[in-house]
Specification:
Length: 383
């Protein structure tokens, strides 16, 4: 029993360490993303500078993805992987995943063949998670295919009610004795592969868990060393839904956001000064009136003397937690959004328990943030 308790304590300590590591690594990424967005809005006519900013953004997002992979392994091991299911076009998700990898493909002089033939490509799925699966598989092919090789992405209908996604490369292949381990966490076949190609060895394990969570299957096929690899994903399809109108992508400043005759006022709280500065610049450019605070007490004081429509707060503040701040301000009827480097299910539940209407994980996706802001403001107007 003592050994079992020791193992449980060690496992809990590991999870706590991963959560803390995630938080500390995420925090510096948020102001980088924010400042890239600010610069993008001012250099629309400079292709060279825009390309440089795209490189920065892409690598920051990759860093965030690696952090998420560490947490996803913990979620999967505990059976706590959650999906937000909705009708999703597999072809659209594949195109987005390919767009993320397109520069890497070009830099390696790889030939890309895309053949999306499946007529029925809609599934009941989590768009972000499926994109993560396809991104992992395509990125895997890019990593292990020599310069000048080829990657092929295709879809087909193996039988009615199913879609098959195939991602094939002309890379280093998989030896038969390694095939049984490629979907294991932290496995890349052998240590020499890890040294040469890098990575954590988590992508395929996470991809398999996410495909299984969608009720699908994933398999790998390879004729052996240096013979290339094909990954095959199968998912059940649904009827194509009624097309929804999409909002145009905004780059420039927008008119001020109003409630009645008054500009919407946001109170942003974060002890990371660069994050506050970046958020203020982006949100003001999107038409909001933004006040910032770096401690819970400073935020509470501002809320007592000024009128705000929404609180956006970090959790790990120096004097009190963001949870304590939200509990105090919710009595004033102020809705809140939690922004945190902590992204486990327990963190989301704690945020909601404290009164936050939504919990978003750093680094900040500003389009997602604004969508939540607009939803909460609309809900406030109804009440």
């Amino acid at each position: 029993m003592t050994l079992r308790n020791d193992l449980l304590a060690a496992n809990a300590a590991k999870d706590q360490f991963l959560a803390l590591l995630s938080h500390e690594l995420r925090n510096p990424l948020s102001p980088v993303i924010a400042m890239v967005a600010v610069l993008e809005a001012h250099v629309q006519d400079s292709a060279e500078v825009r390309h440089a900013l795209d490189v920065i953004r892409r690598n920051v997002e990759l860093e965030a993805r690696l952090i998420d992979d560490l947490l996803d392994v913990t979620r999967i091991a505990k059976g706590k992987l959650k999906l937000s299911l909705e009708p999703v076009s597999v072809h659209e998700v594949l195109q987005r995943a390919l767009e993320i990898c397109r520069d890497d493909i070009a830099q390696r002089s790889l030939r890309l063949a895309v053949n999306l033939q499946a007529e029925d490509d809609f599934v009941q799925g989590d768009s972000a998670r499926l994109q993560q699966v396809f991104w992992n598989l395509i990125k895997n092919s890019v990593k292990f295919t020599p310069d000048g090789g080829q990657i092929s992405v295709s879809t087909s209908v193996p039988e009615p009610g199913e879609i098959e996604i195939g991602i094939t490369d002309t890379g280093i292949g998989i030896e038969p004795e390694k095939m049984g381990r490629i979907f294991n966490a932290f496995e890349q076949g052998q240590s020499s592969i890890t040294r040469k190609f890098g990575g954590l060895g988590l992508g395929l394990a996470i991809s398999k868990a996410m495909v299984l969570a969608h009720g699908g299957t994933i398999n790998a096929v390879s004729a052996g060393k240096n013979q290339g690899t094909t990954f095959v994903v199968r998912l059940s399809t649904i009827a194509r839904p009624v097309e929804a109108a999409t909002e145009p992508n905004r780059r420039g400043p927008v008119p001020a956001q109003h409630i009645g005759e008054r500009t919407v006022r946001l109170l942003v709280v974060d002890d990371h000064h660069d994050t506050c500065t970046g958020m203020k610049m982006i949100l003001e450019r999107r038409g909001y009136d933004v006040a910032i605070a770096h401690t819970a007490d400073e935020a509470a004081q501002q809320a007592r003397t000024q009128e705000f429509d929404l609180l956006i707060s970090d959790i790990g503040l120096p004097d009190r937690s963001g949870y304590d701040l939200m509990r105090e301000l919710r009595d004033q009827g102020l809705p809140g959004i939690a922004l945190s480097g902590f992204g486990m299910e327990t963190d989301v539940n704690l945020a909601r328990g404290a009164g936050f209407a939504e919990h978003l994980t750093k680094p900040i996706n500003f389009d997602r943030l604004e969508k939540v802001i607009q939803q909460l403001l609309a809900d406030s107007e109804k009440t």
